[in-house]
Amino acid sequence: MATVRSIQRFSCVLVCSSFGLLSVTANAQFLDKLKQKAAAAVSGNNSSQPAASTSQPTAPAATTPGTTPNATSGATSATGGSSDSASVTAYQNYDFTPGDKIVFFDDFVNTQDGEFPDQWELKAGQAVVNKQQGYPSFLLTDGNYAIVTPRVKLKSYLGPEFTVEYDVFQAPGAYGLSVFFFQGGDRSQLSTSASESEFQGPVRFAGSLPEAARGSYEGKWHHIAISYRKQQIKVYVDQNRVLVVPDTKMVPDSIGMGGIGSQDHPLVFRNIRIASGGSMNMIGKKFTDAKIVTHGINFDVDRATLRPESMGVLNQIKSVMAADPTLTFEVDGFTDNSGASAHNQALSQQRADAVKSQLVTMGVDAGRLTTKGYGDTKPMDTNDTMEGKANNRRVEFLRTSAASST
User: pTM for this structure?
Assistant: First the structure.
């Protein structure tokens, strides 16, 4: 039966789907897997890998059913576990910062297990929401390729600068998840696996994960961050920048997620956020604005524990303050309107305090920072959509010192 299934899957590689032929790399990877299965069969071993777990262990925190908790200040919800071994210290040189305005966000908490999420469109294959290690996740369970695309009101929603972030679970034996960039009728592909991240489009480049990361990649959650600016792409896997493509020679207008998925080896992801704007990169620039609004300082679900990927923004803030010793800030925390207002206010204050504490640990004088939590009292966007809620979860740095005259 395994041989028949392998032959069927191999045949699928040779078929042209509505989304085009598979790349040479995908073909080579697939052939390698077939060789591995054949070798295992000769030695008498069971070549099939265990299926990705869809059972539900103890959830990371209690939340109200049907609501999106105030899990983070901006980017993702319930990102605890995005990288099992990650720590703030490991991210001390992390320089990714997300875009300014969130145009799409989904953490799948509002989709019932076993259903297809309303915010997505199925283009090819099969997909379903299910629990993965206790987290609501999107599983691509069948297809060569399986492809899903976000439902966004504008057909072209990516500007000249944007960022894409998501958490991915690499099931043992599964292929890597791909991000597809669409430009009219053309498609480019960025695939990240346990060994490398590879861009295939008008140009083709690949970058390897560090050896230590490759050895422990499978069976864990990982945070992927992608920035696009002036046709350049940078790709981060957890704390590591693994790929830079200086000129992709593409100007995409939308994206999709997909790859080769199966029931035994699904592609699994969650907490996807697409944001417009390149980043607040202010290194070497003089700060003259009244405040800095950030959406990249993240916390564990319903807690004030900083997630490691927050270090990209915090490193920028530290650099800004180091460049001008007269700068002082009030660190302001904000939530969306999920949950009780009193709880949201207390949580936002605790998170503002946590941001100050981390900056002090990084060498910023504590006397230059004060904190205030606003809870859900000052939304900057609607609370009627997931994207609006994500924009409302934020940390702002309000300037309290006088602007420099020089």
Answer: 0.76
